[in-house]
Each structure stands twice: as structure tokens, then as C-alpha cells.
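A reminder from the course coordinator: this example appears on the midterm review sheet, so study it carefully.

Given structure:
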């Protein structure tokens, strides 16, 4: 039995030692430089004030879009005029607010004017902005969230940071930006860590199977190593040591020191690829989605034409919540007004959904739902609104918890017992986002860097031992 463990660990170690080293080194980079994205603050900063004097009705825009299951409609100002963006589970489409025309972007010239207007709004320098590509996938646009926007126009601004901006061909919105520094660091971070080359990641199903399998084999190698490391401990005169010498002794002793971290980190990393295999995915069931995302009768949005849209609004969104249609006027990143069909404008906290409105909806999601309560900032299962300072409410429905963004009515989390366990086994173990560490960011940074460095040192000893073993085997 022990012989089989030795042989299995030896050859799995040779196969995976470089992968372990890559994961630990790239994990440090990822902690400080996340994968490129367009933050809500950046997106909103690029929005121009609305010109909504002569716009068609919301119902007409939804009908013209062809999206029969539309659940949300946004009015935004593009460089070529105001457009409605109609969104539903099946995708998003843009409709010209002036004449119901198709507002998708097929011309590179139109995409470029959108990029230039966005850059001016954000105060970005774009001296030589130009469209450099139109494609479905590249290294930074492979995540599934961009599927409803493909193909994408990519524009280089020609500025000092090397900024590149991506425009959706279906809605004409800027959906991503990257800088030269982000791209460079992510080649050493996320791309390596997630095994994320475009050719593999562009097929989600293939990437999922490949990385899940590699992570499982790496976990098995680590478990076998932990068993061997513990069994081979030697006690002499009240002290423990290693029977090995040289690199093998270093591998043994550093491995013993790092065993708990390495096992928990590789295990939690494997769980990052779970995707419903062992734990629930935290998604609404079809019945729940039918309640939350039910497409409304958009003719109910007509009463929201009064009161008029604020002249300082940068974005207007209509959405259904609890069987009623709401209009959300966004005046600044953290400032909005929320108007319900048939109601007068509301003030103060009424800029957000209240506990009564949220409770009325969640009561339809499950039996025995308690009253919603405001989520604290230090909660063990955190959820955050995209609007700074906006409240998030949690409603327990028996063993189910629903976290709802009071700014826009979206369900941020569906937490069943399985998902709550997953939160600790994946997020807490892999990113150390324990509440006490989140409250002390520098301590968390130091722990992550120190532990990953320890894991990297351990992996390097394995690389040296593996190379020597492989070279000897090939020479014999």
C-alpha cells in the first residue's frame, strides 16, 4: 500500500510540480491585480446627460426590440442619440428612442464615436483613438457575461496607459476597459492561475472539464504527499526531523510546515470549479425566477412619464418588482430616485425599495418567510449593492435566504444550506475573506503573500526533485 502511495505521489508530483508553483506565484499577483473589468463607477462616469424630450414610450421600445421576455429597460444617451436597452434572460437589444429603429452597432465608425464620447465623459486622453478589432473573443473578453454583447469592437485610445475599450455591437455600450499594466500583470496572474488562454476558455464546457480534472489530480497529489510527509516524520530525543537529506529534506520539512495551507488552498481551488457538481450554484429555481424576473406589461410604464425625468439624469431604468413597474432615475453614482407606477415621487430612503415592498415579493418565493432585515457590512455572507451606500436586505424563508438590492430589485444571492457551506469551503479558505481579516486588510494581505510564498518555496523544491528524478529516468 505504502509503495503505491510513494509511486503515485512521485509521478503525480513530477507532472504537477510546475503547476503548483504557477498557482502559488500567480495567486499573489491576482490578489493585487484582479482580472480586467469595467466597474460600475467607471461605467457610470462614462454616461452623458440624457436628451429625452422626444422619445418613444417604453412599451413601444420593448415591442420594437423583439425581446418578448424583457424584464428591464434602460434609457441611455449615446453619441448617436438616446437609445433604449431592453434586456431579458435571452439577451439585450438596443432601440433608437427617437424612431424605434435598430440601434445595434455594425459600423466601426459609429463604435469609434461612442468610444470618443465615453473617453471625454471620463476625462480620458484619447489622442489617437482607433478601432483595432471586431471579434467574438479575445483574452480579456472571454468571460460568459459578455455573451449578450458579442461581437465586440475593441478600440485603442493611444494614451500613455495603453487603454483599450470594448463596445457591445448589440447595445452600443462600453462594457470593458483594460490598460497595458492590467494586461501585463494578468498574463502573470489570472491567465496562468485560471489556465485561461483564449483558445481554451472560449469554450466554457471544455475549459471547465479540463481545469476541474487538473485541480482534482493536483489535490490527490497533495493528499498523497501529506500522508507520506506525516508517516516519514522521525522523532529523536524529543525532536522530530526528516530521514531525507538535501532537497528531499527541504521538500519534506517545508511540506510539513505548509501542509494545512496547501491542502486547504488546493481543495478550495478545486471547489472554485464546482459549478453545481457537489454544491448548489446559488441560482434561482425556474419557479423563483418566474416570480422575480416575470416580464411585466410594459404599458404600465406609461404613468411613469409623469413626473418628468430629471434633466440631470444620466440613466433611467424601468423594472418590474412584486408585480409593479418602477422607474429608477440615476442622477449620480450614489444618488437616484425611485418612482412606482401611479405614485408620486418619494424622498429620502424612498429612493430605494423598502422592507414592505421587498417582503411582499419574497413572500411569494417561499413559505414561512420572515420580515426582511438590513444586511450589516460585516456579515458572514456579504452582499453589496452596485450603488454605493444603497441598502441590501436579507429575507430568510426557512432554510433559504434571499439577499435583494434595494436600489434595483435584483436578487444578489440565493443562499441555501449547501451554498452557505460552499461560501466557507471555497471563498474563506481560498481568499481568506473571513470577516475578521476583511476588517484588517493589511493583515490579510500579509497572510496571503506569506502563505503563497511558503507554498511557492515548497513547490520549487518539488520542481528540483522532479527534474532530477525525470532526468535520471530518461538517462537509464
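Designed residues:
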Amino acid at each position: 500500500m505504502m509503495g503505491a502511495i510513494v509511486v503515485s505521489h512521485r509521478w503525480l508530483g513530477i507532472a504537477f510540480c510546475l503547476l503548483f508553483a504557477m498557482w502559488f506565484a500567480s495567486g499573489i499577483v491576482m490578489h493585487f491585480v484582479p482580472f480586467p473589468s469595467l466597474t460600475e463607477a467607471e461605467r457610470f462616469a462614462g454616461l452623458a446627460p440624457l436628451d429625452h424630450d422626444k422619445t418613444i414610450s417604453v412599451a413601444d421600445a420593448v415591442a420594437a426590440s423583439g425581446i418578448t421576455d424583457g424584464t428591464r429597460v434602460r434609457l441611455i444617451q449615446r453619441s448617436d442619440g438616446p437609445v433604449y436597452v431592453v434586456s431579458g434572460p435571452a439577451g439585450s437589444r438596443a432601440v433608437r428612442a427617437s424612431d424605434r429603429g435598430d440601434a445595434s452597432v455594425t459600423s466601426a465608425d459609429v463604435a469609434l464615436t461612442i468610444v470618443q464620447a465615453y473617453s471625454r465623459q471620463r476625462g480620458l486622453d484619447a489622442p489617437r483613438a482607433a478601432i483595432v478589432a471586431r471579434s467574438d473573443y479575445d483574452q480579456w473578453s472571454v468571460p460568459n457575461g459578455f455573451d449578450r454583447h458579442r461581437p465586440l469592437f475593441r478600440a485603442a485610445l493611444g494614451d500613455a496607459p495603453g487603454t483599450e475599450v470594448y463596445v457591445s455591437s448589440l447595445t452600443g455600450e462600453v462594457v470593458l476597459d483594460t490598460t497595458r499594466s492590467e494586461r501585463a500583470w494578468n498574463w502573470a496572474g489570472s491567465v496562468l492561475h485560471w489556465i485561461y488562454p483564449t483558445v481554451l476558455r472560449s469554450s466554457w464546457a471544455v475549459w471547465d472539464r479540463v481545469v476541474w480534472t487538473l485541480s482534482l489530480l493536483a489535490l490527490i497529489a497533495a493528499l498523497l504527499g501529506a500522508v507520506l510527509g506525516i508517516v516519514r516524520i522521525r522523532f529523536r530525543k524529543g525532536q522530530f526531523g526528516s530521514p531525507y537529506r538535501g532537497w528531499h529534506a527541504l521538500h519534506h520539512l517545508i511540506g510539513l510546515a505548509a501542509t494545512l495551507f496547501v491542502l486547504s488552498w488546493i481543495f478550495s481551488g478545486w471547489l472554485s470549479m464546482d459549478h453545481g457538481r457537489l454544491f448548489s450554484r446559488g441560482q434561482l429555481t425556474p419557479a423563483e425566477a418566474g416570480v422575480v424576473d416575470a416580464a411585466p406589461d410594459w404599458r404600465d410604464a406609461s404613468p411613469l412619464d409623469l413626473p418628468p425625468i430629471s434633466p440631470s439624469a444620466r440613466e433611467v431604468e424601468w423594472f418590474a418588482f412584486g408585480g409593479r413597474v418602477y422607474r429608477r432615475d440615476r442622477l449620480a453614482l450614489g444618488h437616484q430616485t425611485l418612482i412606482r407606477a401611479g405614485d408620486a415621487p418619494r424622498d429620502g430612503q424612498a429612493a430605494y425599495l423598502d422592507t414592505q415592498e421587498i417582503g411582499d415579493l419574497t413572500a411569494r418565493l417561499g413559505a414561512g418567510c420572515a420580515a426582511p432585515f438590513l444586511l450589516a457590512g460585516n456579515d458572514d455572507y456579504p452582499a453589496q449593492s452596485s450603488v454605493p451606500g444603497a441598502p441590501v436586505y436579507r429575507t430568510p424563508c426557512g432554510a433559504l435566504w434571499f439577499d435583494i438590492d434595494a436600489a434595483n430589485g435584483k436578487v444578489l444571492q440565493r443562499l441555501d444550506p449547501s451554498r452557505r457551506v460552499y461560501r466557507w469551503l471555497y471563498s474563506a479558505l481560498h481568499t481568506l475573506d473571513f470577516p475578521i481579516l476583511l476588517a484588517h486588510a493589511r493583515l490579510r494581505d500579509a497572510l496571503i503573500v506569506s502563505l503563497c510564498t511558503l507554498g511557492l518555496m515548497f513547490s520549487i523544491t518539488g520542481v528540483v526533485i522532479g527534474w532530477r528524478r525525470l532526468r535520471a529516468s530518461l538517462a537509464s
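Residues 2-30+195-279+438-475 form one domain. The two ends are 26 Å apart (CA to CA).
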